Amino acid sequence: MQEPSPRVALIHATALSVPPILAAFDRHWPQAQRMNLLDDSLSVDRAAAGELTPAMVQRFVDLARYAQGTGCRGILFSCSAFGPAIEAAGRATGLPTLKPNEAMFDQALAVKPDPVRLGLVATFQASLGSMGEELQALARARGRSVDLRTVFVPEAMDDLAQGRADEHHRKIAAAARAVADCDAVMLAQFSMAAAQPLVQKELPCPVLTSPDCAVLALQKALRHA
């Protein structure tokens, strides 16, 4: 008898992250049973507070435990500004729990030379600090040196939320020219993934996005769990 497809939880802090990750699942792992949990007040609260608070961390733990209680075997968070909260959720459940950008960071750190020049472009400014820290910690663990350059694209997220996808993509591509001399450039938010083809036209280096890498990484984690 064929083993039933695993049930996985996709936890989001903004609705803009939902379509890109579902599209990635359709491409790479359509058999997986997906449960979407959305708390779009988290991104608003994170931006207003200016930091990750204990109450926000507890909300991530609560969401993860709820997902575990429904039978989910793995969790993928799509919110890039909450790294420590995601780590706490993973510890609380013991399930394979992925941060949104881990797999993308893996790919970026595989780029030569050393030190590697990496660009990180974000439409949610609060994610730049936490993502930068996560990337540098991973680089240190692997004995790599990273020259990280960050770019914030104001108003692009609002454009996407209001249905102006073309303007969203254009602003990201224009802003990304500031890191054109990097060895690779990463698009920080899941919601930015659809802009990748336009950004890639502007840059000579690889432009990486997180949804496809994340789905493949979660699939691999559950296969070895």
Structure characterization notes:
The chain is α/β, with parallel strands linked by helices. The chain has ten helices and eight strands. The chain has a four-stranded parallel beta sheet with strand order 2-1-3-4, sandwiched between helices. Helix 1 packs across helix 10, helix 3 crosses helix 4 and helix 5 (102-109) packs across helix 10 (211-223). It starts with 6 loop residues before the first strand and ends with a helix. The mean pLDDT is 93.
What's the short version?
With 225 residues, this protein is of the alpha/beta class.
Largest sheet: 4 strands, parallel
Number of DSSP strand runs:
8
Poorly predicted residue ranges: none
Strand content: 15-25%
The spatial strand order of the largest sheet comes to 2-1-3-4
Query: Cα distance, first to last residue?
Result: 20 Å
- SSE order, one letter for each helix or strand: EHEHHEHEHEHEHHEHEH
Share of helix, binned: 40-55%
Total helical elements: 10
Overall mean pLDDT = 93
Sum up the overall morphology in one term.
globular
Rounded to an integer in angstroms, the radius of gyration calculated over CA atoms is 17 Å
Derived from helix and strand composition plus strand pairing, the structural class reads alpha/beta
